[in-house]
Amino acid sequence: MSSSSNFSFEDQTVGMDGINPIVGLEISDEKKSIQIANAHIDLIEKIGEGGMGEVWHGRLKTGVVKNVAVKFSGSRLDSREGLRREANLAAKLDHHAITQISMYGAGKEEDAIVMDYVNGADSGKLMERFAKCNLHTDGILIPERFVAFIGWVCCEGLDYAHTKDLEDHEGDIVHGIIHRDISPSNILIDNHGSTKISDFGIGILSSESAREMGKMTGKLPYFAPEMIDSSVEIDEKADIYSLGASMYTLATSRNPISESTDSGNLGLMAGNAAMIHRTGFPPLEEIIDVEPEFARIVSKAMSLDPGERYSADEMQDALSAYMYSSGFGPTRKALGLYFQILNGMIGDQPIGHLMERAKKKMPYFIENRKIRLKKKKYRDL
Ligand SMILES: Nc1ncnc2c1ncn2[C@@H]1O[C@H](COP(=O)(O)OP(=O)(O)OP(=O)(O)O)[C@@H](O)[C@H]1O
Ligand SMILES: [Mg+2]
């Protein structure tokens, strides 16, 4: 392992941030492994790259071997500073619907956080793959009951985070934490249907880095209108808008605000987005055959006035009432099975036995699995 960091491992505490010690990160040559204090992590493969830096699948070796995800900060000083502050706060969130942060290390050129590894995909990637699935010429959309279920789990995580008292890095109590960057790429779903929100409090740091680098893509459609106006202070209702907008996209494979708005020029994008917010986006009913109650919940979450939106708790209740009104509705197991079937279809694997199980468990989704977009103009992805 090379010595790319500027501290000695005899004393792995490299400073203090308020009440917390800052622990050193060492990155090996060619990024094959990292070391944070005494914890050694082999880096297996790069999973993706967001606005901030790379995300890797790693194996943490501390007596037992555990899968983890490692997110690097990139080299920008303000991102690194923000990451340390936010990671400290976000690490205190301990909930099944939120990816838990377990370590933070400060390196010489970049920093890293270690979090739960979600063995699946983010909901944006899942949607894109299924929408392009060539076994069905029109692609496959995620049935709205499953989108509701994904949103329902996210509401539970948001309610927890929005209402929990947390101690910040200086020992002060902060009431609740706002995510500020809920989007399909920050909603992770594993192969068993568990849904987790990632990047609590730190996603926006990536967006800010990306903005400055002119690499801002794909996030603007999920920004609440008040996030575009920098003079307005945002609260937790911004997350509710972003969750509604994410559900809109997952159900239709279209952004509420069109991609062309996302030009990379922030001033232009924000201006266009503000105009679309004023004039409104196509209602869900116009794009797909959709149950009216689902459309109503999404559009209330996406109210332009934050005061008209749900709280996370209220939105979860509304989604429960909608999904389980017939006494039977989606479950985590059903969602996992659904994605396994679609993965099997795409990968040409034998799926007969999965289909048999699915028919017994979820008759409604088998019938609905191919949902046609209503109008031809909406079919171009
Ligand atoms: N804990 C995790 N487990 C598994 N995969 C993850 C995890 N966190 C992130 N990923 C994957 O890595 C990809 C890159 O994540 P990253 O957060 O850097 O970018 P992003 O979510 O697309 O945008 P942003 O930088 O705004 O968050 C994600 O799309 C996701 O698929
Ligand atoms: Mg992310």
Instruction: Return the domain count.
Output: 2
Bound molecules: adenosine-5'-triphosphate, magnesium ion
SSE order in H/E notation?
EEEEEEEHEEEHHEEEEHHHHHHHHHH
- In one word, what is the shape? globular
**Percent range for β-strand residues:** 15-25%
Number of helices: 13
Please name the fourth-level CATH homologous superfamily of the largest domain.
Transferase(Phosphotransferase) domain 1
Strand order of the largest sheet: 3-4-5-6-7-9-8
Structural class: alpha+beta
- Under the CATH scheme, which architecture of the largest domain would be assigned? Orthogonal Bundle
Write the CATH fold name of the largest domain.
Transferase(Phosphotransferase), domain 1
Report Rg: 21 Å
Description:
The protein is of the alpha+beta class. The chain has 2 domains: 23-116, Phosphorylase Kinase, domain 1; 120-323, Transferase(Phosphotransferase), domain 1 (Orthogonal Bundle), CATH 1.10.510. It is 38% helix and 19% strand. The protein contains 13 helices and 14 strands. It has helices spanning 77-90, 123-131, 144-163, 203-212, 225-228, 237-252, 266-279, 284-287, 292-301, 312-323, 332-347, 352-361, 363-368; strands at 13-17, 20-23, 25-27, 33-36, 39-49, 54-62, 64-72, 101-106, 111-116, 120-122, 165-167, 173-175, 187-190, 195-197. Helix 3 runs antiparallel to helix 10 and helix 11 (332-347) packs antiparallel against helix 12 (352-361). The longest helix is centred in the middle third of the chain and has 20 residues, at 144-163. The radius of gyration is 21 Å and the shape is globular. Bound molecules: adenosine-5'-triphosphate (ATP) and magnesium ion. Magnesium ion (MG) binds at residues 50, 185-186, 198-199, 203.
